[in-house]
Target: TRAP-type C4-dicarboxylate transport system substrate-binding protein
Amino acid sequence: MSNITKKTAPTMAGAALATAIAAVALSPLAKADTWDMPTPYPDKTFHTQNIIEFAKDVEKATHGKLTIKVHSAGSLFKHKEIKNAVRGGQVPIGEFFLGLLANENPAFGIDTQPFLATDYKQAAALWKAQRPVVEKLLGKQGLMVLFSVPWPPQGLYTKHEIKTVADLKGLKFRTYNATLERFAKLVGAAPTQVQVPDIPQAFATGRVEAMITSPSTGANSKAWDYVSYYTNIQAWVPKNIVVVNARAFHRLSKDEQAAVIKAAQEAQTRGWAMSKKETAEKTAILRENGMHIITPSPELMAGLKKIGGEMMTQWKKDAGAQGAAILNAYKP
Model:
């Protein structure tokens, strides 16, 4: 049971709550019996559903000695705050979109490089190559990688059919990291930062007119209310990642540590299977709600892949030896 009592919790401000959680999770004198886990996506998202199962597996395997309380939809920390909240010990564990860290180091964003890995087999090979570098980079920040699960391959959402790259010129384009911002600029669009919960409002108010995202996000945000076309360009297969504060992890007993690792391995396997199923189901939902599901024209794909090549050339320069290590190990 959490050491934050029912009497005091409702009166705490967000900062005070985070401080109290940190004290429980990381204090040498405190028993690590409850871990608060922030996640950025709603309960209906398959990533969150997988994490809820992960939490159940941990509690069962530890016979209730370790409970993970999932705080979904950014209810405890906003998406961009989660990694640093875990790093700083405000919470012991959390999930976030790995590509958000591309500004810290290009190695974090390789899975959002256009057309490098566009299906699940390639995505798995890329994660195998990327993981050692990611573990080393995050390890220097006191974080341990537990598991990573991909989103479905990313498609293009627009109000009108896009037949060539030129059709994207001037459109207000939703972005969420540095890689996608550069992509938008290279196709001649106007990049605008918009996080997932704000997508419907951003389209409704005219802040954005187009976006690249998964069938999951499109269906969950009811994309048919504001766009009519989904072009299945399969631009990249980005991933979420779950990390744990290394100090909090090592305060667990050896049996509890083993239980967390085993549950994480199972969550990764289950999550990849869920993602594959999600691709088909959510694409069908888009179609059922009147969206046109379009196979991209050869002209469009040629133009997009040319831009992807330009971006990869720059990424190699920016990523240096770490990037070269990933690409050398990548065997699609």
